[in-house]
Each structure stands twice: as structure tokens, then as C-alpha cells.
Amino acid sequence: MAALPKRITKEIERLIKDPVPGIIAEPHEDNLRYFDVVIAGPTQSPFQGGEFKLELFLPEGYPMEPPKVRFLTKIYHPNIDKLGRICLDILKDKWSPALQVRTVLLSIQALLSAPNPDDPLDNNVAQHWKDNEKDAIATATAWTQQYALPASK
């Protein structure tokens, strides 16, 4: 594998030395562009108490192009589809090379705290959220209990 750009090396060092609260991001030993990520479900959200596994990959074009990120843990969220893809502007058209892996992870954590059914990736979940938010939150909480509890590993 080609040597990593200095920028990626610095980001990895910072993630290890100064981890983001509630987020673990560890690069694979055999491919430092590929990270195993665990995001703790934010308090005061239907995802509280859950540990959500994600994969994050830094493409060759990084930082000029955004990282590829997806959820591996099932989650009931209007901005995350059944394949784990995430609808987040900074992963698409609002990406900037000034952003870093930690910024992306913090943004995903914030998305868990504030689902946005008006910009959905899963239209059925978004419609459920709009039609009956209380019931959608109950479903999201049940999915967290079923799929994301630390004991369910």
C-alpha cells in the first residue's frame, strides 16, 4: 500500500490521542484508510444506550472528496436507509477539504440526536416520523434495544 498522506496520519493520531466523546474510531492495521467506528447513541434520543457500528473509508481522493461512511448496525432513522447509507450534506455536496474525520463523526452523532424527516433517505421511516412522531420514536427505541445494545454483540 502506498504511504499515507501526512494529513491522514495526523488525523489518525489526533483521533487516538484526543478521542471524540461517545465515539471510537480505530483504523485497520492492514489498511489505515479503513476505520471501524462505534458511536454511542446520544442521551435524550431514541438511540440512547445503543452502540452503533459503522464503517468509514477514506478514498484515494480524500481530503478533496468526502469519506465513505455507512451504518453496519440496523437503525430506524429517516436519514439512514436499510443499507446503512447516510443522508448528510457534508458527505455529499457540502463536503469541504477543511473538514476532518472527527467532524464527520460528530455530525453523524448530531444527526442521531436530531433526525430530519424533511430530508429523508428512507421515505417510509420519514413519513412515519411526520405522521406519528411518538410512534416512530418508540420504533427507533425498540430497534435500538433489539439491534444496538452492547450486550447484543
TrEMBL record:
Coiled coil: none annotated. The keyword Nucleus does not apply. The keyword ATP-binding applies. Keywords: Acyltransferase, ATP-binding, Nucleotide-binding, Transferase, Ubl conjugation pathway. GO terms for molecular function: ATP binding; ubiquitin conjugating enzyme activity. Residues 3-149 form the UBC core domain. Its EC number is 2.3.2.23. Pfam families: UQ_con. The active site is at C87 (glycyl thioester intermediate). Belongs to the ubiquitin-conjugating enzyme family. This is E2 ubiquitin-conjugating enzyme. The lineage of its organism: Eukaryota, Fungi, Fungi incertae sedis, Zoopagomycota, Kickxellomycotina. The gene is UBE2N_2.
